[in-house]
Amino acid sequence: MTPSSYGRLREDRIRFPQVSKTPRVGSIVLPGPGRYHTDVSSEQEQYDDRHDDRTAPTDRTGNPDSADQAEQTDRPDQISQPDRIGQSDQPSKTGQISQPDQPGRPDQSDQVTISDVAKAAGVSIATVSRTFRRPDRVNVNTLNHVRAVAERLGYHTQIIRPRSESNLAGLIALTVNDLNNPVYSQIAHGVQRECGRRGFGLMISETEGSITLERAIIKRSIPHVDGMILCSPRLSDWEVRKAAQSRPLAVMIRMVGGVQSLYADDTPAINETIAAIARLGHREVTYLPGPDRAWGNSLRVRALQSACHATGMRLRHTQCAYPVGRHSARAFAEFLRHPTTAVIAYNDEVAYAFMRFAHDHGLDVPGAVSVVGIDDIPMCEVCSPTLASIAVPRQEMARMAARKVIDQVLHNADGSTAPVVLPSRFVPRDSLGPVR
C-alpha cells in the first residue's frame, strides 16, 4: 500500500476524540475493573505533534506497522476499553502524568518513559503511542507485546482516581432523527425528566437521519458533555462502540453489542395483531415498511413473516413508505395495484397518511381495508376512525436510558451492558374491523 493510499484510508475513518475538561496531556485506558492507569507522557504528545497520523509508523528494524495490519484491528472485538474518566491536571517533571501530592508518596522522577518502552519492545515511539492512545490502529500481536513490555517495565502503573461530581459538566447529550416526529419528542421529554431529577441538563440534537450529520454532532458534543444517548442511530456498530470509548453512552431503539442498549420487543404484540386480524376474516395483509437501514424495521419484518406463517396469512410488502411524502405516495400507489383487506404500517405517521390516501381514493377504513400502525402516538386516539396501533413504552425506555448513562457518569453502574428489552402491546381501535 502506498503512503498516499494509507493517508486516504486513515482520513476515511471516524475519529472520536478522547477528551477531558483539563488540558490534554495524556489518555486513560481501562485494563481491569476499578483501575484507571496513565499511559501517555508529554514526550509522547510532543512526538505525535511532530508526526501526522497519516504517516505509517515504522519499527526500529524499518518495517512499517502497515495499514493492512491496522485495518485488521478495526473490528469490534479489538476495540479498547472506554476512556470515561477525567485526566490528571499536571504533568510531572519527567513528562509522566502525575497525581496530586499525597503523604508518603515516593519520588516519581525515575519513572520509565515512552522511549524506554519503545527501546525495550523494539518498536518506534509512534507504535507505543498508538498502543495506548489508539489501540485499534495497532496489530493485535504488536499491541499485546508492547503492553506486556510496558507492564514489565512499570510503565503506566499510576492509578488515577475517577472524576468527582465537582469536575462534571452536568450535561447529557441526546441525538434523535426527527424532532417533528412525536415518538422522538416524547423520548426527549422522558430523558429530560430523568436528567432534571438527577440534576443534569440535556442537550438535544437532530440528525435528520443523516449518518454524516450524526457523526459530526457526536464529535462536536464529546468535549462538552458527560454522557450521550443515541436514539435509533444510523452509525455502524463499530462507530457506536468508538463513541462509547469517549463518554458513557446508551443506545435506544437498537441493539449494539458491548454498549448499553435499550429497545422494545414488538414480536409478541405483532403476533397478537396478526391473530386479531385473522379472527376478523382477513387472509392477506400488506406491510408498508420503513427504511431498510432502520434497525426496528428489520425486526418488524421478521416478526410479521413469522406471525403470518403461523396463522396462514399471506404477507405482501410495498417499497419504503417512510418518511411520509414522496416515499409514501409511491408505496400507497403500489398498494392500489395489489390491494389487500388489511394493512400494517411501519409507524403511526405512515398509517395515518395511508388512511387519508384511502379516503381520497374511495376506500373506506375499516370497511374496505383495516389499518394498524406502530408506536401508539397521541394522534391515534383523536383521528377518525381512531387508529389501532402497537404501543411502544417510549417514556419508560427514555427514563431508563438516562438513568443508565448518569449511573455510568457517577460510577454507580454495575458494569453490565446487558440489553434492556421492554415489551410492546397491541391496542385495538376503530380502524380495525371484519372483512366485508
UniProtKB/TrEMBL annotation:
<feature type="compositionally biased region" description="Polar residues">
    <location>
        <begin position="58"/>
        <end position="70"/>
    </location>
</feature>
<dbReference type="InterPro" id="IPR046335">
    <property type="entry name" value="LacI/GalR-like_sensor"/>
</dbReference>
<dbReference type="Pfam" id="PF13377">
    <property type="entry name" value="Peripla_BP_3"/>
</dbReference>
<feature type="region of interest" description="Disordered">
    <location>
        <begin position="1"/>
        <end position="112"/>
    </location>
</feature>
<keyword id="KW-0805">Transcription regulation</keyword>
<feature type="compositionally biased region" description="Basic and acidic residues">
    <location>
        <begin position="47"/>
        <end position="57"/>
    </location>
</feature>
<feature type="compositionally biased region" description="Polar residues">
    <location>
        <begin position="87"/>
        <end position="101"/>
    </location>
</feature>
<keyword id="KW-0804">Transcription</keyword>
<dbReference type="InterPro" id="IPR010982">
    <property type="entry name" value="Lambda_DNA-bd_dom_sf"/>
</dbReference>
<protein>
    <submittedName>
        <fullName>LacI family transcriptional regulator</fullName>
    </submittedName>
</protein>
<dbReference type="InterPro" id="IPR028082">
    <property type="entry name" value="Peripla_BP_I"/>
</dbReference>
<dbReference type="GO" id="GO:0000976">
    <property type="term" value="F:transcription cis-regulatory region binding"/>
</dbReference>
<dbReference type="InterPro" id="IPR000843">
    <property type="entry name" value="HTH_LacI"/>
</dbReference>
<keyword id="KW-0238">DNA-binding</keyword>
<dbReference type="GO" id="GO:0003700">
    <property type="term" value="F:DNA-binding transcription factor activity"/>
</dbReference>
<feature type="domain" description="HTH lacI-type">
    <location>
        <begin position="112"/>
        <end position="170"/>
    </location>
</feature>
<dbReference type="Pfam" id="PF00356">
    <property type="entry name" value="LacI"/>
</dbReference>
